[in-house]
Amino acid sequence: MSQGVEVVGLYVRDQEEALAFYVEKLGFRVHTDVRNGAYRWLTVQHPDQPSFQLGLFAPGPPVLDTETAQALRTIVAKGAMPPLVLAVDDCRAAYDRMRARGVEFTQEPMSRYGGVDAGFRDPSGNGWKMIEARRP
Amino acid sequence: MRRLLRAKDRMDAASHEDWPVERLAHVSGVSVAHFARSFKQAFGVPPHRYLLTRRIERATALLRDTDLSITDIAFHTGWASLGTFGRTLHDVTGESPGAIRMRGRASPREVGRVPACFLSAADRPDLTIAVSEKRRRLAGGINGSEE
Q: How confident is the model at residue A1 (pLDDT cuts 50, 70, 90)?
C-alpha cells in the first residue's frame, strides 16, 4: 500500500521525555529522528503498524512563535487535544504491564458493550483510550 | 496546568465520590484558594459544576444502557437522595430520569463504531451558568432557552 495517512503528529512539551515514554513505556520504535538546528523531526511507530508514524512534535520557534507555542503547551496540558485510541489484544494485560512501567492511568480497565477499555495520559497531557475490541 | 488536569482526571475516574475542593487541591498539590481560581480559569467552570456535568453524563448513560433502577443510578452516580437527583437532572436537562430513559431506548443508536466514552461525552450538559441561577431564571419566567 502506498497511499493513505502516513504521519499524524502530537504536540508534546518535551521531545526527549515523550520519546522515552512512547518507546520505553508503550513499546513503540523510533522511525525518524532528525535535527536541523533547534528543530527536531521525531516520529515513532507501533511495532505492528509499519505504514503509520506518530509524530512527537514540540511547538516552538522557528515554526511557531513563542506565544503560540506556550498557548499550545497549555492546551495539551489541559487535556484538550482530540481523542487518541490505541487498539490492543488484551486491555487488562496491557494495563498491568504499562502501569508497572509507571504510565499514568486515568481510568482502570472496564468492560462495556462486550469490549474492555482503559484510559491513560502521556507526560504532556495527551489523553489516550486503550481499547480491546469485542471478540467476534 | 498538568497538575490541575490530574485533579480533573480523578473526578472523571470517580465522579460518584465526594470531591470537596480541599481534596482536589491536595491531588494537585496546590493551595485551596489557588486551586479553585485556577481550575475555573483553565477549564471554564468551577470544579463542583464540572463534577455535576460528569455525574449527569454518567447517569444519562446508565439510564440509556442499563436496566438499573433509577434509585440505584442515583446512588451509583453520587447523589445523596433520589429527590435531589431527579430535581437536579430535571433542572439541567429539562427531563425527568424516566423520560431520559424512555427517549434513550426509543432511539437505539449505532454505538458499535464509536468508543463508549466519547459517545457518552456527547450527553454531558454544557453548564455555562450555575444550576441555582438556571432555576432562578426559569422561576422568574425569563426565557432561559438561549443556553
A: low
In a mutational test of the B interface, the residue from A113, A116, A120 whose CB has the highest number of chain B CBs within 10 Å is A113
Listed residue (B133, B129, B123, B76) closest to B95, CA to CA: B123
Asked whether the beta carbons of residue A77 and residue B2 sit closer than 8 angstroms, the reply is: yes
Q: Is the pLDDT of residue B126 over 60?
A: yes
Q: Does the distance separating the beta carbons of B115 and A85 come in below 8 Å?
A: yes
Backbone angles phi, psi at B18, to 5 degrees: -80, 135
User: Helical H runs in A78-123?
Assistant: 91-100
Written as one letter, the residue type at B5 is: L
pLDDT tens for A18-60 read 999 999 999 999 999 999 888 999 999 999 999 999 999 999 9
Q: At what angle do helices B32-43 and B47-65 cross, to 10 degrees?
A: 60
**pTM listed for this prediction:** 0.83
Task: State the nearest Cα–Cα gap between A111 and chain B, in angstroms.
Answer: 10
Residue A104 has pLDDT above 60, yes or no: yes
* Inter-chain touch B9–A113, beta carbons under 8 Å: no
| ipTM for this prediction | 0.78
- Tell me what percent of the residues of chain B surpass a pLDDT of 70: 90
CA distance B62 to B108: 14
Q: Which helix (H) or strand (E) holds B98?
A: helix B97-106
CA distance linking residue A53 with residue B38, whole number of Å: 36
Residues of B in contact with A119 (CB under 8 A): 117
Residue of chain A minimizing CA distance to B116: A112
The CA distance from B5 to the nearest CA of chain A, in Å, is: 6
Residue B147: predicted pLDDT: 37
